[in-house]
Amino acid sequence: TQSTWGLELGFWFMGFCEDLVVGDSARWLCPICHGVAQDAVETPCEHLFCRDCVALLPTRSCPLCRQSFRPSQLKTPHRLVREHLAALKLRCVHHTQGCQSLMPLSQEEVDKHAGRCLFAEVCCDSATPEGERCQVRVRRNELQDHRSQCLFLNIGCENIGCEDFVARKGAREHILHCLYEPLTCKRCDMVFLRKETTAHDGTCTEVLVPCEHDGCNTKVKRKNVGAHLGECGFRIIQCNRCQTNHTVNDSGKHDCVACLKQQNDQLRKDMDMICQQMQTLQASVAKHHETQEQYQVIARECDRTLAAECAALWHQAMTTLRSPSDHPVLTYVNSLAYRRPITESELLVLCRKMTYTDLVKGVVLNGFSLSVTDMRAIATALAETTPRPPDFQDTRKFTSIDISNANIGDEGVEVLVPAIFPHFSLSLETLRLSGNGITTRGAQVLAEMLRSHKGQPVPWLDLSANAIDDVGAEALVQAYIKPGRMSYGLCSLNLSANVLSLNGLVGIVNALAQLKPCDSVQVDLTKHNIIVPKDHFTLHAALQGLRTGSVVYKD
Questions:
Q1: N or C end: fewer C-beta atoms under 10 angstroms in the chain?
Q2: How far apart, in Å, are the Cα atoms of 397 and each of 160, 356, 360?
Q3: Do 408 and 370 contact (CB within 8 A), yes or no?
Q4: Which residue has the higher pLDDT, 468 or 540?
Q5: 191 has which bridge partners?
Q6: Where does residue 253 rank: exposed (0-12), middle (13-18), buried (19+ CB within 10 A)?
Q7: CA–CA separation, 228 vs 222, rounded Å?
Q8: CA-based nearest residue to 402, from 383, 378, 371
């Protein structure tokens, strides 16, 4: 049976239809599909077939001579055969309707022509916005004429300003509801768009509108409203003698004397009420002044009392502090500094009091918000003290400096370091600068001081809760743990709660690996949320080679 699909494209099953081929094509027919061979191949027995027809054979034997063959034995026909096949031309399947096109025996050329043949039937692709499609089939050369009348084709609304597209069959219904359809007012003959109907009703001069005066039920045209308001009996007028308002219809009933008497009585009541309010306000003001004077007397007395108590506490603290165990007392006294920030002069006095002359071993300014000016005052006082050597028998040694949580920053560190440097080798045992917002810049200043120092470092150096990153931390550790000078006792460097990462931890551990077995140092790197991978063999090997407890990095 002949395939409809094959007929439409111009060939019979796999080969081309012989009726459509122009030229002597009888010699080149495929024995299987009886069409002109398409993509011809030759069997070992020299019979010609379509390549696809051979592939569909149930057995690998020639249908003509029954000679067996293998797919690999199929070959391209001789050059003369190929030239004869190339010389043949194929007519369009619509040649009886008038198509005169001729094309080579190539499936690709057939497909191209089928997509542009003017005599081929195509389906109209017009569709309404609702999805309803036109099912009419016409020739391709008649498609434009059909579209000019197709009821399913989307067309633009003919009204100026309307951007809607509707199917041709629904254009009339759209016009009946289009907001841009021009309309003519039946009352005033004015032309307006349908979307302006409400606005026109509010301005049309021929529309009847009610009178705006209370009590008047008359309706007049909008263009006559002005004339009606001037004549309306419910219009409000004012009496020239008593200044009261009444309607035109009530003018004959108006009594000026009664109105004036009523107004006079109302004014008397208002005056009496105002006088009472004035007396109440005067009494409140007098009571407020009296209370304010009492508060001022109490405040002045409190100021004198607090000033005396604070002065006594300051004097007692400055003259009785003897050891670091008294630091909480000093912190308490400082917090009572008359409810105000500590001044530069008070800082200077405090620093000078906490020197060797008063047998005090440390400076504690924990919790104050110190500026760069305050730090200069502290540095000035420290610079005036004389460092004591470790073997000095006098108990007056400067051993501790605690300026934690004071927000001194990098500038405060730069001011403080030159003043405390002389005390490093001789007496200073504790330096606490935690919670001050120190960054890598301040850490590098401290590292430079540690590198310049030739003796044992400060046994307890606390730089926790700052903003020191990997670069600053590695610089501090390398300067702090100089090999050969850590055997005087346990030294501790606290860098917890900064901004270190795993790379910083690796660098610090590599620096600690340079220490000798006799060196005793501990570096605190807790509270960094550093996750050490199990497969980080370099770090684990370095940690195993360190002395137990030399680095704390958990959490």
A1: N
A2: 99, 6, 8
A3: yes
A4: 468
A5: 184
A6: exposed
A7: 10
A8: 378
